[in-house]
Records
---
Amino acid sequence: MNLERVLPPGVGARTFDVALVALRAVVGEAHVIADAEGLVPYGRLMLPAEDFNHQPSGVVAPASVEEIQAILKICVHAQIPLWTVSTGRNFGYGSAAPATRGQMVLDLRRMNRILEVDAELGTALVEPGVTYQQLQDHLRAQGIPLWLDFPAPGPLVSPMGNTLERGGGLTPYGDHFANSCGMEVVLSDGTLLRTGMGGVKGTNTWQAFKYGYGPYLDGLFTQSNYGVVTKLGLWLMPAPPAHRTFMVQWHRDDDLARAIDTIRPLRLTNVIPNFGVLANATLVLTGPCRRAELYDGPGAIPQAVVEKAARERGLPPWVYLFSLYGRQEQIDLDTPFVTREFEKAGATVIPNIHDPMQSNELSLQTFSIFNWTGGGGLVWFSPVAPTRGADCALQTQLAREVMGRYGIDFMTGMTINGRETLNVMPMVYDRSDAAKTLAARRCYHELIDVFAAAGYGFYRTGIGFMDHVAAVHGEANRAVAQRLKHALDPAGILAPGKSGIHP
Ligand SMILES: Cc1cc2nc3c(=O)[nH]c(=O)nc-3n(C[C@H](O)[C@H](O)[C@H](O)COP(=O)(O)OP(=O)(O)OC[C@H]3O[C@@H](n4cnc5c(N)ncnc54)[C@H](O)[C@@H]3O)c2cc1C
């Protein structure tokens, strides 16, 4: 490993050292890291971007809004770019590492207070470093009957980081940005903005009414680099009196289109109230198996091998997990209806399945995906499809073809809404193998091009791929994002390169 000193771009060693002294005076000696060894965890990647391009020059970890404002003053003056993270576990999208080399990581983990939970309205107000685990422990300790919706790595990660990435979970509150309400944001000139109703003196509706008065600004601070978000309001689901999770088994690989077309009306009418997840057998097999037990031939694992391994474990080529929530009578009433709808389409429905993510149980069970190949490589390829069978089938065909050429196993876990499907495809590879890492990188770029050529855009991407994905979303979008950048961060020091937005 190369442990050379990394400097912010265009900043000399002397200027940087002076700035470090000033930053230490603000946050304390222990909360600034600038030695190469201390920075290693912040530059560690899972995705197949080039390590060199994403090494930070330092880390500064404030404990308050006032400290953030003081840090910004120093960094604007010295022209040191800051890459903000809340818990910094954006695994498979860049973890804590910056989009461009030499940024300092603004690590907000120390700001981890749960500021308020309103048990009546089902809202919370949290700081960036609060994890889902911490929030759930708090709710349970206080006996507050609210459920959390969290992403799979819930115990480790933050509502703030996940929501600002527009990430998701699997309950009816699975769209995290849609279920956020009110932000506090520090701009690079130190301005403190409270969005929505937050600017009203003495407000008690900041976490109740999103839109406030005038333009609705919250979206500007997601997947962007316009500010440092220091507080976030959340909507939490009243604990349902009952819920039942179902596994729908689709018996043939080409059942995918039929599965999607069966699910769509059930989601559009809210009979199925949650995203649920439609996974292919390869993804399901990462739970019980390692790849090497099933296949040691060349190239991507053949579909026939996957289907045989799945069959031996009682699993079909496609599995859809969803839940019904509410009063037991209502669930009992809807159960035969949904079962019939799926059975008419040739699927088998198994009720009373256990899925932690749909049941308010934090767990790290999906981390078994890393055992598939070993070597710690993971990147998410995340195109969006309309919820139509033909489109999801086409996306599957395109991804299989491209990934197959690079020897990467096709996996997907689609989260299905009434109108859009987030077709989230984990690409798992051995990152200790340079050739495989390069193949994964090239494969990802080719996937972006192939999907764009077919008219598809993306829900999210990771560092190393942001400029490419931004280009797909059109020049006018890019240019307006750039104008907003100049208006809100004229110094251009916040997270250059995030979502393809540069100073
Ligand atoms: C096995 C596995 C399963 C996963 N499953 C899911 C899943 O189900 N759903 C899902 O959404 N993700 C999933 N992920 C991806 C990822 O780990 C989560 O999205 C995680 O919540 C992001 O990390 P974080 O919360 O620490 O965010 P952070 O890393 O703290 O933040 C993410 C990004 O948001 C921005 N940001 C963060 N905080 C601020 C701030 N205060 N102000 C301004 N900008 C900020 C930055 O650009 C930052 O890079 C999974 C990862 C793995 C390995």
---
Amino acid sequence: MSASTYAQQHRDRFVEELKTLLRIPSVSTLPQHQDDVRRAAEWLLAHLRDLGMTAELIPLEGGHPIVYAQSLHLAGGPTVLFYGHYDVQPVDPVSEWTSPPFEPTLRGDDLYGRGASDDKGQVFGVIKALESFLRDEGRLPLNVKVLIEGEEEIGSPGISRWIERHARKVACDFAWVSDGQLYAKGLPCLVTGLRGLLYTEVEVRGPSHDLHSGQHGGAAPNPVNAVAAIIAGLKDRRGRVTIPRFYSAVREPSGEEKASWERLPFREEDYLRELGIPVSPGEQGYSILERRWARPTLDAHGIAGGWTGAGSKTVIPAKVVAKVSMRLVPDQRAKTILRAFEKKVSKLASPGVEVEVRELAGGDPVLISPTAAPVQAAMRVVREVWGADPVFVREGGSIPIVAKFDRVLKVPTVLFGFGLPDDNLHAPNEKFHLPNFHKGIETVIRWMERVGTK
Ligand SMILES: [Zn+2]
């Protein structure tokens, strides 16, 4: 037989096992699900051991454990590191789900359930590819390390630090991450860039206690006004961030890359309609895809403080906090930008207030060369399995771990997701298109054969 034939013959069982994993409500952000998160980790651990891999749970202080497995039997052979996550997003509003989020339900070819696509279905697909080799041929075509974390949906705080300290344990030649989508149904894509994220909290303090605006308005500093002025001053009317040297490290995408984006089935009119906006207010001189993928930006997410309840209260609050983040692109560095941001914010502070910036999360952007050998191999295999040439795209969002693979392990990552753009990630009625599950498994099998020793 072959690994592919094995996978074909065990399709139904694979889906049943995935359902078992989906029934575990491993919501990482909610303390009441802590035991469930652990249960999902233990279930995967037992599953990987059952396949004959050496596996362990790696505890993270104050966090959810990493599931780590390996099979290193080819001395001198190449080593791949597979990454995924077993934690899921909360399910609210639960009343909008057609079937219960943790009771996986098949409707047509789609399996509904929280985590079906993000990321349990995809990471389990990788595991089933490994099983197909191990059960059919008794060995894998290359050395394999598997890293499945339980904190991706809360920003991967634990694993990012862990990687820094355990780079040798997870040393590899290249990495593979399946935690994403095709560009469109029938159009697979390989991701060649991710933006970084610098997330901050800006606290503005005025008087030592709340004041009455009738008695003190005009004489006392107002932190709400002050924070609004700070946010307003961080971007100009043309959509440019005003922080000095903010753009100095930004690398322009190549002409070739830009031309390939222009060939994508993306219409700006459709995008504006989908968002329900008349125009895009972003940086002038750049297409919408460039603004979302290759340009850095800055957004405020909320301001807490003062009076926001019903009716009026004439308060000048003592303190206000705003959440402000920046999406970063190569070769910007979160650390450098944080310092420049702090300086700019204190310059924008009006007289009489004190300002403090706290960093809540920071991750660097990453670029992956489309000509790297494992990416090229993926391109060929995706074409064979999906019947279409994959397009090379970037993503506006961040997967912090991929930046670590780039900066700490110094290896390229193949980013191939086999969900669909309408899988309802993080939303009610998340689903996974099962034909994609099986094609995903086949893709991983053929890729391993191609980059391995066979
Ligand atoms: Zn995910």
